[in-house]
Amino acid sequence: MKTDTTCTICETVYAVEPPFCLKCEYPFSALEKDKSVFVGRLFSKKLKIEEAKNKIKRAQNILWIIGGINVLSYAVVFSQSLVVDLNILDLFIGLFFIVFGFYASKNPFLAILISLILLISLYALNAWVDPVSIFRGIIFKIVFIVGLVYALKSIYEVQKIKNENDYF
User: Fold this and answer.
1) Per the domain annotation, does 25 fall within a domain?
2) Tens digit of pLDDT at every position of the chain (168 positions)
3) How many alpha carbons fall within 13 Å on the CB side of residue 16?
4) Contact 101, 60 (CB under 8 A)
5) Within the chain, what is the greatest distance between any pair of CA atoms?
6) How big is the CA angle at 74 (ends 117 and 71), to the nearest 5 degrees?
7) Nearest 5°: phi and psi at 160?
8) Residue 88 lies in a domain
9) CA-based angle 90:77:95, to the nearest 5?
10) Are the C-beta atoms of 71 and 94 separated by less than 8 Å?
11) Among the residues of the chain, which ranges form H helices?
């Protein structure tokens, strides 16, 4: 009676037991200790992937908050004066961040990278025009930048994990 071998990790079925799974690289012929180490590393990688998803969601929230602040800023200035001047730029910047917040669901690395570059450029431009502006809301600026950088770092690590193994 011939029995097939099924991988305990990815459930790939093999007619003949290979030394390791071709999909997830589970070591069939290894010692139990080595199998346990493999499963631990696999679990750690899965946690990194879940962590990256959470960081992407936080980055999306950051982009929506930045966008909302800019749109709200435009709305407040517009309601107080009927003159539409450079403040319309706040509206476009706000809409840009809101759109890229949604786009982060489809292509998180590109959306967050472009948004981070724009955000740092805006902070630098404001500091060049009004050097004291860099200190206004410094905590929020730091939180926004660090949150986006951590999301990019996590996305990069997940891509590395996915490139190493077809299982993910």
Assistant:
1) no
2) 467 888 888 888 888 888 888 888 889 888 899 989 999 998 998 999 999 999 999 999 999 999 999 898 888 777 776 555 656 788 899 999 999 999 999 999 999 999 999 999 999 998 999 899 889 889 999 999 999 999 999 999 999 988 887 777
3) 2
4) yes
5) 86
6) 55
7) -65, -45
8) yes
9) 25
10) yes
11) 32-80, 88-103, 108-129, 138-164
Owning domain of residue 147: 47-164
The residue behind tokens 């099924």 is 6
Please provide residue 19's backbone torsions phi and psi, each rounded to the nearest 5 degrees. -65, -30
Read off the tokens for 24.
């997830």
**58 found inside a domain:** yes
Cβ atoms < 10 Å from Cβ of 149: 14
Exposed e or buried b per residue across 87-106, where buried means at least 16 C-beta atoms within 10 angstroms of its C-beta: beebbebbebbbebbebbee
pTM higher than 0.90: no
| Structural tokens at position 168 | 């993910």
Cα 116 to Cα 96: distance, rounded to the nearest angstrom = 12
CA distance 95 to 93: 5
Q: Is residue 154 part of a domain?
A: yes
Give me the number of domains the chain comprises.
1
Place of tokens 């951590």: 150
